[in-house]
């Protein structure tokens, strides 16, 4: 089947709200066409409309990225119809829970969306990206990937996977048209639930706090500058340095203590 257009597009997952929405709008400001992927019934059409107001083409696809069949249908639709020169794996799931009290579906979905979906989407779209003159992959990890964190046990582990996956793939693709970056945002108040969790963490939760609007601008700018490892905000560079100085046992204790405040009600 021939593609319906010869134009290039950027695909963003989790594009209906929060960081993903802002990344999509930042690309639209740069006059880059977008493919917006989100869960059903999350009003992704309104984001597409805002992108079109900025003078670009915007297409949408609703899919549950924890479902393998939905993933493959989505990537097949993309490959058949569009040239992709930017892939942003933003969709992710977080949360703070006591591990043994967590619902099994919560654990499975967190791993599916953070690890499996990112891996499958990248695998399926990489041949498309490789056909383009210059392409970019931006994966969204987290500052939480720098240490194991109790009560964020699975979350911090999945974000560590994203960090290692991105760095390894970047090296594997040297000499090709595809460059891979990973962004590691600190805390961002993207919605009321996340804002509440940050507030409960106290001072440690506010260190490195950055607006999601600025994080989106910095992420896209540095992606185009071919930076493999993207920290946003000067405080987070300082945080990373300080974390490297603190013994792992103490670092894990402090971060776990902060995380526990989110559920200690």
Blueprint of the fold:
Elements: E1 8-13, H1 18-29, E2 34-38, H2 44-53, E3 58-62, H3 68-81, E4 83-89, H4 104-130, E5 135-140, H5 153-172, E6 178-183, H6 192-201, H7 203-206, H8 212-224, E7 229-230, H9 234-245, H10 248-260
Parallel strand pairs: 1-2, 1-4, 2-3, 4-5, 5-6, 6-7
Helix pairs in contact: 1-2, 1-8, 3-4, 4-5
In short:
With 265 residues, the chain is an alpha/beta fold.
Given helix and strand content, the structural type is alpha/beta
SSE string: EHEHEHEHEHEHHHEHH
Q: What is the CATH homology-level superfamily?
A: NAD(P)-binding Rossmann-like Domain
Mean pLDDT: 87
Number of strands: 7
The amount of helix comes to 40-55%
Domain count = 1
CATH fold node name: Rossmann fold
Please give the radius of gyration in angstroms: 18 Å
- Report the uncertain regions: 194-203
Strand order of the largest sheet: 3-2-1-4-5-6-7
Give the strand content: 5-15%
Which CATH architecture is right?
3-Layer(aba) Sandwich
N- to C-terminal distance: 56 Å
Q: Specify the number of helices.
A: 10
CATH class category:
Alpha Beta
What's the main sheet like? 7 strands, parallel
> Rough shape?
globular
Task: Give a written overview of the molecule.
The protein is of the alpha/beta class. It has helices at 18-29, 44-53, 68-81, 104-130, 153-172, 192-201, 203-206, 212-224, 234-245, 248-260; strands spanning 8-13, 34-38, 58-62, 83-89, 135-140, 178-183, 229-230. The protein has one domain (8-260): NAD(P)-binding Rossmann-like Domain (Rossmann fold). The radius of gyration is 18 Å and the shape is globular. Residues 194-203 have low confidence and may be disordered.
